[in-house]
Design brief:
Layout: E1 6-8, E2 15-19, E3 22-31, H1 33-38, H2 40-57, E4 60-70, H3 74-91, E5 95-101, E6 108-117, E7 133-138, E8 143-145, E9 148-153, H4 160-173, E10 177-182, H5 187-199, E11 202-206, H6 218-222, E12 225-226, E13 230-234, H7 239-246, E14 252-260, E15 264-269, E16 272-278
Parallel strand pairs: 4-5, 9-12, 11-15
Antiparallel strand pairs: 1-2, 2-3, 3-6, 4-6, 7-13, 7-14, 8-9, 10-13, 11-14, 15-16
Length: 288
């Protein structure tokens, strides 16, 4: 269904919707049942975290959230709720409503979130151009969640003040990017591949230039869901402005490659070079 109020939606981390003279970002995400079984409090926390990152990646600040839970175990319900409320407090996002299915056979949790686009300038994933620099922004101060080896936690131990500082610095940096996405379950390179597919371009990336936390396995890091991580494209003349905006934060930032007109995603590690995806033939999301 088409609507003149919808500015962007397909392939984006959040839909951009026109509301009067403002632009809103609208996101929704669900948490896998397996994560709820392993650590329901962390699952509740992540239900907020993933939506916050989706909203931020669009150059928007979160405003409010709602939830839908299916839980028939009171202990799991309490843990899920505590995780959600802990994250709402951490990221300063009020939970304004929701719905509970108390007799469900399988536990699940989903959250929808709305945010306001900063300066009415949304950052899309479909606007990278050949010649842009590939940039990664991530938080190397954290640890992998016990029992969940691909879930990087870099926020739960931080104060609300520190989190707000990092969010504000990120939102100061994002307007200088030409395209961006938050690093999702597909990992750093998989998320970049989705951005390239949406933009109809390719990239050459040097793995050695990616910030990696000390004593963390490279493959585990590249394939992890990062608690506060983003990939994007930026004009060469704007790179320093991005670095300057992030100086006051705990975030690491690095230029790791270049956007190419050829729809091939190539990676290099040391002297080794490989073709990761041929985007002229292969589909990542299948949306383009």
């Amino acid at each position: 269904m088409k609507s003149k109020q919808i500015v962007a939606a397909k392939g984006e981390d959040a839909a951009i919707i026109r509301c009067g003279d403002r632009l809103l970002a609208f996101a929704a995400d669900g948490i896998r049942h397996e994560l709820i079984k392993i650590d329901p409090r962390w699952a509740g926390y992540c239900s907020i975290l993933v939506n916050v990152n989706d909203i931020l990646s669009m150059n928007a600040r979160p405003i409010a959230a709602v939830n839908v839970m299916s839980v028939n175990d009171d202990n799991i319900l309490r843990a899920l709720t505590k995780g959600m409320l802990d994250a709402c407090e951490k990221f300063n996002v009020p939970m304004v409503g929701g719905h509970l299915h108390p007799d469900a056979e399988i536990e699940s949790i989903s959250v929808a979130m709305v945010g306001e686009v900063c300066g009415n300038r949304p950052l899309l994933s479909s606007s990278a151009e050949p010649g842009d620099q590939v940039i990664v922004i991530c938080d190397c101060h954290g640890h992998f969640t016990p029992g969940i080896p691909y879930s990087w936690d870099c926020t739960s131990m931080k104060s609300r003040k520190k989190i707000d500082n990092d969010m504000t610095a990120l939102l100061d940096a994002l307007p200088f990017l030409t395209a961006g996405k938050d690093i999702s379950n597909s990992g750093m390179l998989g998320t970049l591949a989705m951005l390239l597919e949406a933009s109809g371009v390719g990239a050459a990336v040097d793995i050695d230039k990616i910030p990696v936390p000390e004593d963390i396995n490279l493959i585990q890091w590249l394939t992890a869901y990062q608690g506060f991580g983003f990939v994007g494209a930026v004009k060469k003349e704007n790179v320093n402005r991005v670095f300057e905006a992030l100086e006051r934060s705990d975030l690491s930032v690095s230029v790791i490659g270049k956007i190419t007109a050829e729809k091939r995603f190539k990676i290099a590690l040391g002297k080794a070079q490989r073709l990761l995806f041929d985007l002229s033939k292969e589909k990542i999301t299948g949306l383009f």
